Amino acid sequence: MQDNYTGKLVSFLTKPFFNGYVVFMPYSLEIKDLFFSWSKQSDFVLKIPNWQVKTSEKVFLYGRSGEGKSTLLNLISGIENRYSGDIKVLGQDMTSLNQRKKDTFRANNIGIIFQQFNLLPYLTAEQNILLAQRFRSVIKAPHSGQLASICERLELSNNLLNRKAIELSVGQQQRVAVARAIVLEPEVLLLDEPLSNLDAKLRRHVREEIRQIQQRLGLTAVYVTHDQEEAMAVSDRIIVMKNAEIAQEGSPSDLYEAPNSAFIADFIGDANLAACEIKTILDGMATVQMNDQSHMVRGGGLRVFCRNI
Q: Do 192 and 29 contact (CB within 8 A), yes or no?
């Protein structure tokens, strides 16, 4: 009985890992005491004391420009190495790997969609999509049906696939970069504003296709965005960054319904902030004075951030 239960639990919570072994892995990403700065003189300091991403979870990093969101992706993937602390990806301690082993690990297990597409201009779109398999130590070439299915979902026709990357529009290049990252079914997918160059209609379509592919394959996804609608619509959890630190994290509804600061309340959603004074609270009703007028507000109907004066 115990063995049957354990087997079901493991099959539900785990994914195939290195060399075909199956291991228990509740978290795909784990960060502890992370500290990063460009230099001793730099004002930018990224600090993440403790952070995990569950296996198959979709996490969005959301915040203003310059808050360290893209830098955090580079640290997770092993592209950037100047940091202190611990970073584990799929249970592998990235700190313990030299650069060559990090590159191999990344090629085998992590798909990345950059802001810059990094396509080779004189290869065709299809050749660019299939290029990633050359860097894998474990050969896992996609079958023709798999490639065709992904390209169809991303509206990449055979005509586009046979054209050189330099001949494609910016939006077409972006879709090629998305296809290249997901065609080999990585365990972890890192996305740095992957849809920023698409028009609104195509952006929604490709976003939904990425979401469906991520769910079908059970990928763990960390997604950088400046688009609040995008973050609120498809994420399991949102990390709001401020001053290169985590200001608050939670589900979209958590952040919207229970912001932990005036900054989050102003940054998430369409909240209006106004100075007021709470005069009385009685039987679930509060008397709130704003300017020269008093208002009766039922408990739970108004979020108030108190400041002692």
A: no
Q: What residue type is 112 in one-letter code?
A: I
Domain boundaries of the chain, sorted by first residue = 2-265, 275-309
- pTM exceeds 0.85, yes or no: no
88-127, pLDDT tens digit by residue? 999 999 988 998 899 889 888 998 988 788 899 999 999 9
Type of residue at 177 = A
pLDDT tens profile 233-274:
889 999 999 999 999 999 998 988 888 888 888 888 665 667
Question: Taking a C-beta distance cutoff of 8 angstroms, is the pair 71, 46 a contact?
Answer: yes
CA distance 151 to 155: 6
φ and ψ of 111, to 5 deg: -105, 135
Dist. CA 204–CA 156, nearest whole Å:
16
Q: Which CATH class is domain 2-265?
A: alpha beta
Distance CA 221, CA 178 (A): 13
Contact between residue 236 and residue 251 where contact means Cβ atoms under 8 Å apart:
yes
Tokens of 293: 């007028």
Contact 187, 106 (CB under 8 A): no
H/E element holding 245? strand 245-250
Model confidence at 13, pLDDT cuts 50, 70, 90, reads: very low
